Amino acid sequence: MYDVIIIGAGISGATIARELSRYDLKTIILDKEYDVATEATMANSAIIHSGHDPLPGTLKAKFNILGNRMYKQMSTELDIPFMECGGMVLATNKEEHILIEELYARGIENGLQSHELQMLNREDILLLEPNLSDHVISGLNLPTTAVTFPWEAAIANIENAMDNGVELALENKVVKIEKNDYFTVTTNKDVYKGRIVINATGIFGSDVANLISKATFETKARRGEYYVLDKDVRVANRVLYPAPSEKGKGVIITPQYHGNTLLGPTSEFVDFEDVSKTTASGLEYIKTNSQKLVKNIPFHKIVRSFAGGRATSSNGDFIIEESDVKGFINVCGIESPGLTAAPAIAVYVVGEIVGNILKLIKKEDFSPLRKPVVRTFELSNDELNELFKEDKRYSKMICRCEKVTEGEIVDSINRNCGARSIVGVKNRSRAGSGRCQGGFCQSEVINILARELNIDKQQVVYSKTGSEILIGKTKGEK
Amino acid sequence: MKMYDVIIIGGGSAGLAAALEINKFRKSKILLLERDAELGGILLQCIHNGFGLKVFKEELTGPEYAERFIDELHEKGIEYKLNSMVIKLHPDKRVEYANIEEGFVTIQAKAVILTMGCYERSAGAIGLPGNRPSGVMTAGAAQKYLNIDGYLVGKNVFILGSGDIGLIMARRMILEGANVLGVAEILPFSGGLKRNIVQCLDDYDIPLYLSHTVTEIKGESKISSVVISKVKDFVPIPGTEIEFEVDALLLSVGLIPENGLSEACGIDMDSRTKGPIVNESYQTNIDGIFACGNVLHVHDLVDFVTEESRRAGQAVVKYLENQLEKSDNHIEMISKDGVSYIVPQQVNVNNINDKLELFLRVQKEYRDVNLVVRSNDTIIKTIRKKHMAPAEMEQIKLKVEDFDSVIGSISISVEERQ
Ligand SMILES: Cc1cc2nc3c(=O)[nH]c(=O)nc-3n(C[C@H](O)[C@H](O)[C@H](O)COP(=O)(O)OP(=O)(O)OC[C@H]3O[C@@H](n4cnc5c(N)ncnc54)[C@H](O)[C@@H]3O)c2cc1C
Ligand SMILES: Cc1cc2nc3c(=O)[nH]c(=O)nc-3n(C[C@H](O)[C@H](O)[C@H](O)COP(=O)(O)OP(=O)(O)OC[C@H]3O[C@@H](n4cnc5c(N)ncnc54)[C@H](O)[C@@H]3O)c2cc1C
User: Which residues 255-314 of chain A have a CB within 8 Å of chain B?
Assistant: First the structure.
């Protein structure tokens, strides 16, 4: 019998799991996929928003501001990449200038301090952003805007939660939920019993809520598509947002921790099965609209495109509450700024909702720290040679585009919540995320996975069950 | 810090030829650094015939061609390191590399030659629409799995792009018992050599869909089908879709010179070749750093790589002997009508021995035209061409005398015959 069953291993489920692991509770996370963080948490802008945008009084506004203020500490404890680059909303005409003045007022109303936002004119902005387009006339500066590495944030939270006793069961799709004295949660594989169930299933939020009682809300999928530029080009120094218009937030230019630049997203309601499909029209829209804010975007440096689905709820706000079934907690409709808000939502859900149902007793042996991750590109040669003395595999380069060593790849497999697929290795170590997209190193990654997981090379999967790359031996081989 | 006369980055056909050429003319302390476990570069996975017709006057496989150079390298005792990846190049010609025996090491050279080859444009770079299942990979990656590791990646295969690697893989997959359902090419002409179209597609009845591209990838964990459509001005025409059930889609959509190191070092790039801008001596804008082979511009024939790298090697010898004239006063090579690029991009006539060999590519297919070399309005040379295509590199030789009347720049264009 579990105290808490969390359904969904995105950033929401991950931060809640870690928060629960501080207490003497038996917790499990269930996810339908082969790895954690494969849906919205895998495909977003990675921005830790300042809190200038959500409407005052909403849960989005409240948890955005709180979450932003918690990110640095969380990132330090869990060794999650965190780049305090700042952000800016840019206006290209009079109407947009008025809009960003409204955003300024909204930010103040949401609780931002005056040093956390300033209006700037074109000359001031040019000093900070030399690549600015000729159209920009003014901007709202948001120095507390930052950039994280979203799936690593989720992986790190789950790893730390597991180090502190939480269990994880992947490839478990919840298909039935019943309640008597306790909950019985049935998946395609197993049956789990628990006192509390937390529904953090992203776009599937209302589907899963409906398994136990008629949900008061509906979640729909709103797709966003992106282009990724190679890491050797710097288009912008900070997050550049266009002024919001009727048509949505427009194309944001986001520098990433590892040096890449994201261009996107688009915004379009789609069927669930289409959320991660890119389209020719969406990608074309990004190319056209990204040039509004900056010039000289090197489109020949595109290394990848991707898409993800926001879980937009029918009431327009986050839904974070115990449902009419006691002990069934919905954490749904967590669209943007959900990544930012996650650590604050977790503290609220555990402290204010779980804590009202179960008695929370602090664990004495809880450790908030995750074992640091080696990232070769962050280290000097002297530091690398220190590592090399301990383990030679930290000088064997596997991924030449991103400079990832065998040591890093092996480590990414052998941790709690470790990689079990080629994409899993890529998401944790970055091997294969560069300009050749694994063209050179994928076969080497297959060898390492097979060795570390003690399986045959033909059993190594790309992303999930059934996605093996090597399907048979050639005629000459046995 | 260890000192070398020359450090060569990359042990493919370019690096090998340059090393041997320097050694032939000057006793030098040379170090060849190769990332892979073996020397030879991309040749090692090209187990088909068709290498060496020009250089050795016989048809060899890729590994056989490489072996001749590797054997000679051993014979001459030229130093090389395997499994050693260069991670940084400095403008003062310090080179940082890493390997499992020595860790992270910095060494100094008087001259550096860039011979890192190229990589294949990926599915990500061309923004293929649809899902991201497994089974979509570059033709070169599939070739490596097949020819080096001994594994098949698909039984029903479609190929996007008609680059040479794709064509060669089409035949190779058939020989392994797979079905190759077709090759789609977005352009109205093929990106590969004529001989490869004939020997790899026509001979096996594999259809080539010109002016077609992939408009959707279907499948959850593994690719289940691809949809292709006819295009007009690169835009898919609705209603022309054809769907193929496949378990692999191989991409042969272009090679890109591997210049991560060069760009980080501050070397000026040519946006058309995606390689460094070089002069007649294959020297980049940074004194003492040279480039040749696929890192400079994509070659379709290894023989050209070998010849170019030998010339680069000879220039490095001159550089080490202080015989290369330094001057900013050079002639610019300008690509005019119909020409997409020229290498080298700059020429200092005083450094040419007797003749200069230029490589260029044209923008589309031409029949019965002239290639005209001009300086301002004076025609220097006219070359009659029966047939030219973007896939086939053209070579032009200019004699020192040809430069007598040249001021400032030389242009080359494709022109109708009068
Ligand atoms: C295009 C886009 C851009 C965004 N940009 C930003 C940004 O810049 N800043 C920001 O703060 N936020 C941003 N967001 C929002 C942020 O990404 C999300 O709020 C956050 O990732 C949501 O996390 P989650 O855990 O709630 O959902 P998800 O990450 O979607 O996780 C839900 C999990 O539930 C699992 N699941 C679903 N159904 C079941 C079932 N029946 N059984 C078992 N498991 C199940 C899924 O497999 C999945 O792993 C963006 C979102 C998108 C889509
Ligand atoms: C699939 C294919 C088929 C071909 N078929 C034919 C044919 O039939 N006939 C023909 O004549 N030509 C053919 N060619 C063309 C010819 O073989 C190539 O153009 C030529 O081999 C390229 O040589 P290179 O040395 O420039 O590059 P490569 O052979 O690619 O060598 C580059 C080397 O540099 C190394 N390297 C890269 N970066 C680093 C680093 N940072 N540190 C250390 N080492 C590094 C690489 O590992 C590699 O070994 C073919 C090419 C390909 C790709």
Answer: 276-280, 283, 300, 302-306
Report the alpha-carbon distance of residue A11 to residue A349 in Å, rounded.
14
| Residue of B221, B253, B258 to mutate, testing the A interface (most A Cβ within 10 Å of its Cβ) | B221
Instruction: Give yes or no: A49 in active site.
Output: yes
CA B392 to chain centre: 12
Ligand 1 binding pocket includes A89 (Cβ within 6 Å): no
Q: Are the Cβ atoms of B150 and A437 closer than 8 angstroms?
A: no
Q: Is A400 on the interface with B (CB under 8 A)?
A: yes
Facing residue for A473 by CB, picked from B98, B141, B151: B151
Per-residue pLDDT reduced to its tens digit, A248-280: 668 999 999 999 999 999 999 999 999 999 998
Mean pLDDT taken over chain A: 95
For residues B245 and B339, state if they share a domain: no
Contacts of A396 in chain B (CB under 8 A): 83, 98-100
Q: Which ligand is nearest to the CA of B36?
A: 2
Name the maximum alpha-carbon separation found in chain A: 72
For the Cβ of B36 lying below 6 angstroms from any atom of ligand 2, the answer is yes
Q: Which of A437, A442, A446, A478 to mutate to test the interface with B (most CBs of B within 10 A)?
A: A437
Whether pLDDT at B380 is above 60: yes
pTM of the full structure = 0.95
Question: Do B44 and B192 lie in a common domain?
Answer: no
Q: Quote the tokens at residue A470.
A: 């090597």
Write down the pLDDT at residue A73.
98
Which of B303, B324, B345 corresponds to the end of one domain? Answer: B324
Comparing alpha-carbon positions, the chain A residue that sits nearest to B140 is A439
Q: Is the pLDDT of residue A391 over 90?
A: yes
Q: How far apart are CA A457 and CA A444, in angstroms?
A: 11
Closest CA to A422 of A35, A19, A121: A35
Q: Say if residues A279 and A264 touch (Cβ distance below 8 Å).
A: no
CB contact under 8 A, B151 and A280: no
B144 touches chain A (CB under 8 A): yes
For position A246, what pLDDT does the model report? Answer: 67
Q: How many domains does chain B have?
A: 3
Q: A259: burial class by Cβ within 10 Å (0-12, 13-18, 19+)? A: middle
Q: State the pairing for strand pair B409-416/B331-335.
A: parallel
Domain ranges of chain A: 376-459
Query: Cα Rg for chain B, rounded, in angstroms?
Result: 22
d(Cα B402, Cα B396) in Å, to the nearest integer?
Answer: 12
Structural domain containing residue B288? 1-120+255-324
Quote the ipTM score: 0.93
With bands split at pLDDT 50, 70 and 90, how would you rate the model's confidence at B131? confident
For chain B, the average pLDDT equals: 95
pLDDT digits (tens, 9 = 90+) for A446-472: 999 999 999 999 999 999 999 999 999
What is the spatial distance between Cα B357 and Cα B344, in angstroms, rounded to a whole number?
A: 9
Q: What is the CATH number of the domain that holds B138?
A: 3.50.50.60
Q: Judge: domain A376-459, CATH 1.10.540.
A: no
Q: Which residues contact A252 (CB under 8 A, 6 or more apart)?
A: A45, A47, A239, A240, A241, A242, A262, A263, A264, A265
A6 lines ligand 1 (CB under 6 A): no
Establish if B132 touches chain A: CB-CB under 8 angstroms.
yes
User: In terms of domains, do B190 and B136 share one?
Assistant: yes
Q: Which of B31, B42, B59 has the most ligand 2 atoms within 8 A of CB, as the residue to mutate?
A: B42
Do the chains contact at B152 and A472, CB–CB below 8 Å? yes
Residue B41 near ligand 2, beta carbon < 6 Å: yes
- Is residue A204 within 6 Å of ligand 1 at its C-beta? yes
Whether residue B265 sits in one domain with residue B174: no
pLDDT of residue B377 exceeding 90 = no
CATH code of B392's domain: 2.60.40
